[in-house]
Amino acid sequence: MHSVVVRSSGTTADDVIAVARGAARIELSADALSAVAAARRVVDELAAKPDPVYGVSTGFGALAVRHISPELRTRLQRNIVRSHAAGMGPRVEREVVRALMFLRLKTLASGRTGVRPVVVETMAAILNAGITPVVHEYGSLGCSGDLAPLSHCALTLMGEGDAEGPDGRVRPAAELLAEHGIEPVELREKEGLALLNGTDGMLGMLVMACADLARLYTSADITAALSLEALLGTDKVLAPELHAIRPHPGQAASADNMLRVLDGSGLTGHHQDDAPRVQDAYSIRCAPQVAGAGRDTLAHARLVADRELAAAVDNPVVLVDESGSGRVESNGNFHGAPVAYVLDFLAIAAADLASIAERRTDRLLDKNRSHGLPPFLAADAGVDSGLMIAQYTQAAMVSELKRLAAPASVDSIPSSAMQEDHVSMGWSAARKLRTAVDNLGRVIAVELFAAARAIELRDGLTPAPATRAVLAAAREAGVRGPGEDRFLAPDLAAAEAFVRSGGLVAAAESVTGPLA
């Protein structure tokens, strides 16, 4: 089984995905446990002093003005978890909760939060046992961290609330911990706050969205190339020298992908055979420019994610010097703006990529613009409707993607009696991006389905070797070819699974080699 080692210096996107989506086992490094212990000594020293320290001996948020006596501090930390575990709505997906917990563990292990080693060890044990706290859709404003989602996770650490076991059944957390020999944690000074005050949920969703979008951008380049072939377009617009004079790296990468997929095609360059066509429509000719802009946006999002993965987000934080002494300082690093912005940027890019893919699909189905293809790619147009309603479905998803592109990060609803008077809404941005990514995959699947059928209807013309490999793999995956009208949903579902699994990219790369 793959293992992920948690160190005091941060983590990687690959590690997040391995824990969130796989069965990677977590190991705590000696340097992480040493850093945690050093920070805890600072907290213990401050807790013994009469001076109020936020998070250690005071209330929270707008209630930070109250000094909390030592005998009430365990109750204080327990109460913040219970009161903040106030989420509502549907359950959040298992992979999101695991990413959230792992990223919180990463920050706890940084030696900046002041928790005891037992807190870090217990959280790692819960993840390794496959226990997943029940977290709800609503409860985070993306500032002061993803408070309600993280609180539901902290509740499990205390042996309270509900969680999902490795068998998928939801049960009381206390039962699940007992079954796996995990002792619930009684929280002490600073620990309740440290478990809640991070941008971990939105960051986890950003990391996974970046991985998914990287595959979908490659997939979209492949389906754009197939549509270009099916429409007898020209690949001359993909020449490297044309893209070098507008040096956006994403644009060059997309153009190169398309050119490699089209290498050896017998369909390209026929755009003057049926009627004079000086150049192809924008949805064909500008495919690298649109997909490339999305690729560059994705590159920026990954840069932000990498910075966050190296960060320790908490308030207050413990700063320990080389002598071992330290201090606790309040800060605003929990504000989710850096993450929220790129989550919104990615939703915009996803919507536009879907939009141009839908325009290519529509062109394939319109006999007035498809250059010789039958109406709606039907076997007997009029008796058969062909792929008419597949495009309706695609258009409906594109319309939703456009609504999801409205940014969440420009909104702010003040909270905590105006102490927290500007929030990021990054969690909301992340939730809608997940929906957008799913829909983008479906939109690309519909284009694949239409372009594959159109190419197979071009009698006497031989598609590129990479295209032939894609068509063969798609048919093997259950995406059926041309024919009379039939129940279409299973074909679309098979196409979606083919795209989502990476089968489309793998089929093309079996001929082209690795694509960007």
From TrEMBL:
Keyword Transferase annotated: no
Organism domain of life: Bacteria
EC number: 4.3.1.3
Family the UniProt entry places it in: Belongs to the PAL/histidase family.
Biological process according to GO: cinnamic acid biosynthetic process; L-histidine catabolic process to glutamate and formamide; L-histidine catabolic process to glutamate and formate; protein homotetramerization
A GO cellular component annotation in the UniProt record: cytoplasm
Pfam family name, one: Lyase_aromatic
Gene name linked to the record: hutH
NCBIfam families (alphabetical): hutH, PRK09367.1
Cross-link (5-imidazolinone (Ala-Gly)), chain numbering: C143-G145
InterPro entries linked to this entry: Aromatic_Lyase, Fumarase/histidase_N, HutH, L-Aspartase-like, Phe/His_NH3-lyase_AS
Pathway involvement of the protein, from the record: Amino-acid degradation; L-histidine degradation into L-glutamate; N-formimidoyl-L-glutamate from L-histidine: step 1/3
PROSITE patterns noted in UniProt: PAL_HISTIDASE
Catalytic activity: L-histidine = trans-urocanate + NH4(+)
Keywords, ordered alphabetically: Cytoplasm, Histidine metabolism, Lyase
PTM comment, free text: Contains an active site 4-methylidene-imidazol-5-one (MIO), which is formed autocatalytically by cyclization and dehydration of residues Cys-Ser-Gly.
Location in the cell: Cytoplasm
Record-listed 2,3-didehydroalanine (Ser) modification sites: S144
Keyword Cytoplasm (UniProt): yes
Record protein name field: Histidine ammonia-lyase
GO terms for MF: histidine ammonia-lyase activity; phenylalanine ammonia-lyase activity
PANTHER family: HISTIDINE AMMONIA-LYASE
